[in-house]
Amino acid sequence: MFQKSHKQGEHVAIVGPTGSGKTLLGLELCKVIGARRATDGRPSRVTVLQYKPRDDTLRQILPEKEWPIIDHWPPNYGQEHVIVWPRGFKPSEASRRQRAVFLPLLDTIYQEGGQTVYIPEAAHFERPLPAPGKSGGGLGMGGTMEEFWSGARSLKISVISDTQRPRQVTRLMWSEPAWVMIFEPDDDDDLRRVAEMSGFKRDVFVAAHRLGEHEFLCVRRQRHAGQRVLYVSRVNVTRN
C-alpha cells in the first residue's frame, strides 16, 4: 500500500519503544522509495543518517554493496542510496562532531530538494548540545527539524523519522506527516499525544492497546482529498 500510495514530498513519522521494530520499518520504507525512479530516470535519492556507534539492524536491512557509507557530501556519481555515519569519536566529542557533519548536509539537501532523508531518533537531533567536554545531550538541531517537517514537502523532500517518546519532539512531527506509524508506546500520555494529532483520537488510543508484538497502526492522511485512513500492519523481525 505504501509503495503504491506514497508520493515524493510526503513525510513519515514513526513512534515506538525500543525493540518494537520502528527502525526496521523506517529502513524498509527507505528501500521502497529507493526502488523508484526519479524524474531524471535514475534511482530515487535516499540518504540515511546514523549517529549510534553501532547498529546491527541497519546493516541487516541495507547491504553495504547497495548502501555504501560515505564521509563526505555530495556522494559520488551513481551513489543515489547512501548512509552518512560519522563514527570514531570520544563520547565527550560525539554530539558536536556529528552536528558538524549532519547540519550542513541537511542544509544542502533542503536547498537541492527532490530527495528522501531518514533521520533516526528525532529527539536526539532536537535535544540541546551537551556542555563543552560533557557527553550526553543531543545535536541541537531542533530548528532544522522543524523546518524540514513544515517546509520540505513543497521541495519534494520526504522525511522519514522515528522516536521513542513523542512528547520529546516538536508537535510538527505529528501534525505535518502524511503517514504516521504507531507502535504501542510504553506510556499512555505518550499515546494520547499521538492519538490527538492523528485524526483518529479514540480509535488510535483503543486499537494501540490491542496490538500484538511488532504490530503497528498506520494513519494515512490524504490532504488533497481531505481524508484519513487507519490501517493495521506488522514488521517481521528475524532473531538470530
Question: How would you describe the overall organization of this protein?
Answer:
Helix content is 35%, strand content 18%. By secondary structure, the protein is α/β, with parallel strands linked by helices. It has one domain: P-loop containing nucleotide triphosphate hydrolases (Rossmann fold), CATH 3.40.50.300. The longest helix has 22 residues, at 91-112. The radius of gyration is 17 Å and the shape is globular.
- Binned, the helix content reads 25-40%
Taken together, the total number of domains comes to 1
Tally of separate helices: 9
Distance between the termini: 29 Å
Helix and strand pattern: HEHEHEEHEHHEHEHHEE
What CATH first level would be assigned?
Alpha Beta
Strand content: 15-25%
Oligomer: single chain
C-alpha Rg, in Å?
Answer: 17 Å
Low-confidence stretches: none
Q: Find the structural class using helix and strand composition.
A: alpha/beta
The strand count comes to 9
Average pLDDT reading: 90
Shape, per Cα inertia axes: globular
Q: How would a crystallographer describe the biggest sheet? A: 9 strands, mixed
Q: Fill in the CATH topology.
A: Rossmann fold
Strand order in the largest sheet = 3-4-2-5-6-1-7-8-9
Q: Which superfamily, in CATH terms, is the homologous superfamily?
A: P-loop containing nucleotide triphosphate hydrolases
The CATH architecture comes to: 3-Layer(aba) Sandwich
